[in-house]
Structure to design on (218 residues):
């Protein structure tokens, strides 16, 4: 009787294992929408609010699960008008492109996609002070590096949804002249002489252009 009961308990597990399909992606188009949270450079953290990061990209995964990709980046940070008393308003637009190397691997319906993005961006400080001082937005540029992690779940044979995490290191330091003012009141040089970084939490969608095949666990 004990053996019979044990067999009944093990049958569902065996059935699920037999039905588990190892999904091996090929090429995919991905789009991610995230919320950036400013980390370093205290002036950037206090005066700018991250509203959105949009990242459309294309990725190809090799047979050994190594992946390469490329994409575009748009981000927007709004001036926090409640954290300044000089009437500063406007925002920062980040326009960039990147390449990515990493690994993408699925275990049944669940997958992990992680890697590093290396890119270049144009940063447009479109503030009211710059419009008065320069007659246009202030612009600078620089590189960025972003380790990323995606926790994926397939919904159909050709698509999946994911939770995305990333940490972005930008090459520029957030300085007063970029916003059109002389100084950040209350911030000394030590607090603003740091590169600009932010942590991203978001969601993504992937569409797969075929797959390399599947194997059933027996």
């Amino acid at each position: 009787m004990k053996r019979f009961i044990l067999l009944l308990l093990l049958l569902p597990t065996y059935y699920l294992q037999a039905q588990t399909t190892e999904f091996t992606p090929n090429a995919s188009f991905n789009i991610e929408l995230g919320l950036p949270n400013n980390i370093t450079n205290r002036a950037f953290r206090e005066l700018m609010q991250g509203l959105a990061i949009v990242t459309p990209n294309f990725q190809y995964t090799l047979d050994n699960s190594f992946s390469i990709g490329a994409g575009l980046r748009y981000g927007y940070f709004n001036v926090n008008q409640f954290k300044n008393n000089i009437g500063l308003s406007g925002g920062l637009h980040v326009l960039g492109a990147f390449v990515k190397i990493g690994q993408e691997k699925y275990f049944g319906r669940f997958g992990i996609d992680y890697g590093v993005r290396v890119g270049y961006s144009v940063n447009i400080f479109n503030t009211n002070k710059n419009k008065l001082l320069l007659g246009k937005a202030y612009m600078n540029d620089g590189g960025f590096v972003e380790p990323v992690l995606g926790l994926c779940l397939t919904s159909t044979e050709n698509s999946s949804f994911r939770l995305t995490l990333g940490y972005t290191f930008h090459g520029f330091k957030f300085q007063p002249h970029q916003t059109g003012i002389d100084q950040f009141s209350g911030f000394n040089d030590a607090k603003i002489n740091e590169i600009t970084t932010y942590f991203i939490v978001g969601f993504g969608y992937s569409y797969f252009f075929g797959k390399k095949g599947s194997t059933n666990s027996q």
Remarks:
- The two ends are 26 Å apart (CA to CA).
- DSSP finds five helices and eight strands in the chain.
- Helices lie at 2-19, 42-47, 128-133, 176-179, 189-192.
